Amino acid sequence: MTARHLLAALVLALLFCPPLKAQDNPLVQRGVPAEAAAGNAVAARDQAYANARRLAFQRMAEALGGNIQTPSDAQLERMVAAMIVEDERTSSTRYTGHLTVQFSPAQVSALTGRSFAGTGAAGAAGGMALNIPMAAQAHIEASTQFNSFQEWLELRRRLRASNSVASIDVVAISPDAARMRLGLRQPPNEAAAALGAAGVAVSQDGGRWQLGLGGG
User: Fold this and answer.
1) Which residues does UniProt assign to the signal peptide (predicted)?
2) Please, what is the average pLDDT of the chain?
3) Of 84, 90, 107, 101, nearest in space to 165 by CA
4) How far apart (Å, rounded) are the C-alpha atoms in residues 81 and 101?
5) What is the pTM of this model?
6) What is the rounded distance in angstroms from the CA atom of residue 12 to the CA atom of residue 7?
7) How far is Cα 46 from Cα 55, in angstroms, rounded to an integer?
8) 34 and 52 in contact (C-beta within 8 Å)?
9) What is the C-alpha separation between 76 and 74, in angstroms, rounded?
10) What is d(CA 123, CA 110) in angstroms, rounded to the nearest whole number?
């Protein structure tokens, strides 16, 4: 092989071979499927989340390379520090989506006896906070009425784009209205103000919201 051919091969390798990345933190599992069917939308979502936690733990255990027994559902729920909805679809009896699941370093250390200092995990000695959005701190029931499906899609787009909204669970939907359960990353009053600035009109009635398209 001539020097010219060798140089061409090197250029092709640099173009088409992906760069090496630092190993992902095993305590953060992304793209975890969440699926379940139940008697109503809320029960289906809760079961889907439980299934996702279990699968995320199994992936983490495999990444850690140890024979770690899967804890109970209650223990797993306590071990999860944050759960972020990447995408979701809901119906009256079914939930499907993908989640990012972040496990607590302290809880995993207690279970496995391993130290996670320096992994970049929040709470680990000398570690740094993980760069993923904060999980829902509060939940609120919300409803909306719309004149067209495009109006509904635009409202949902604005909700998803807001840093104040961690999750959107559609409980019921009809041709001109929908009911949702919103997971909020900040107190409801602060979230309502942030949504208003982002083009979502919020009318508060006790623990329920009425949503619509606003300016912005």
Assistant:
1) 1-22
2) 79
3) 84
4) 8
5) 0.51
6) 9
7) 14
8) yes
9) 5
10) 13
Q: How many residues does the chain have?
A: 216
Q: Within 13 Å of residue 6, how many CA atoms lie on the same side as its CB?
A: 3
Residue boundaries of the structural domains of the chain: 28-112, 138-202
Question: pLDDT by residue (tens digit) across 7-29?
Answer: 444 444 444 444 333 346 889 99
CA torsion, ordered 55, 139, 78, 161, to nearest 10 deg: 50
Q: How far apart are CA 155 and CA 135, in angstroms?
A: 21
Q: Is CATH 1.10.520.10 what the domain over 138-202 is classified as, yes or no?
A: no
Residue 74: how many CA atoms within 13 Å on its side-chain side? 0
Contacts of 46 (CB under 8 A, 6+ apart): 38
Sequence-ordered strand ranges (E) for 78-213: 80-90, 94-103, 138-145, 165-174, 177-184, 200-205, 208-213
